[in-house]
Amino acid sequence: MSNINVIDEPCGKGKTSFAIQMMNDSPDESYIYCTPFLDEIERVKKATSIDITAPDYKGGRKIDDFNSLLMSGRNIALTHSTFSNSNSETIEYLTEGNYTLILDEVLDILIRFNDVCNDNLTKADIKLLFNEKFIETDEYGKVYWIKDSYPTSKYSNVERLAKNGNLFYLDKTMLVWQFPAHIFHLFKKVYVLTYLFEGSFLKPFFEYHNIDYEIVGLTKDENGIYRTCQHNRDIEAQARYKELITIYENPKLNNYKASSLSKTWYDRQKPSEIKQLQLNIFNFLHNVMKAKSEKILWTCPNDYKQFLKGKGYNVVRKLTEKERTLSKGEKEKLEKKLSCFIPLNARATNEYSDRNILVYAFNFYSNPYVRRYFTNKNEKDGTNITVNQDYLALSCLIQWIWRSSIRNNEPITIYIPSERMRLLFKKWLNGEM
Description:
This protein is α/β, with parallel strands linked by helices. The protein contains 17 helices and 17 strands.
């Protein structure tokens, strides 16, 4: 039996409640609870009876405080971001700690180097490092640092990640950071709380690194006790959502081919085409639905938000004079809550559970260079690791939709102009996926 259990259940089935119950029932065990958002940390801390602490800056980096807490054997709740900064010190303490990891939602296991390190490394920089033989790659694209440190600190992050074994150069085009896979072997037990695991990069990542896992379900008995069980798709539950979800159908507003509305499509469109999409969104929200701003939730690629936003679906309301005097952090949090727009990758938040008129203006395809990371393995080793594009797209769509009032089993209406995304969602509602 694997020490990694993937609890693959829809939103609202009690995955977080199961994790809290487990920690409360076995307080002598050591736990790390890892979640995408800070708000969830506070929720878990309040709901558990064990002593659980979140890393703080304390004048340095959060990873340093995380390592300090590990050294002390404390129970820890932290974000994916902090956990992803794990270093050799982290690994040393995890090896000795006998921890159970509870991973709330799957991690981003491959991230662009510049996004991880907040650097602005250019193609010319990478070419220089190769030409001056500071770095080289193996047949899988893994980057190795092979000389002394560069004369300046400009490439210190490249050196650090390469020496940690976490840097890959994909298709001689994209430099990416890889989550240190061997960390999963350091835990006594791992629970991954997610839905549609098939539609995540963590599944092929486990297969790439020969990490065994078991997909399980969750059940609650008559006494309210959660238990893991054999995993079965709840097709009846999916069908029940058909009664609550209205997918807007209109040939004029849905006149987008299967390949349209991808990130590549957006980047190639003339301003007039983007403007037409903005008019379609406005038409649906105001002329068709006559929706009030406080009921609207919409999304698109972040780079195009400024071109698609419009009157009546930008913010629920403006900040009051008193609210404008709040601290920077409190004000940003309130502005986020009052926004009608939330990013495509929004997960694990209940802030928008009162919104019931939705627009999803995107057609999700994974980055081809990230897919290449897996196909490289197939070509070199004869493996058969697959990335399921349709399940990846469906997973992202469902996670986003479930930020709305559907999570409270309340009806919603959604406009999905992408033909492909609309059909995938219909298949899911019909129990075909």
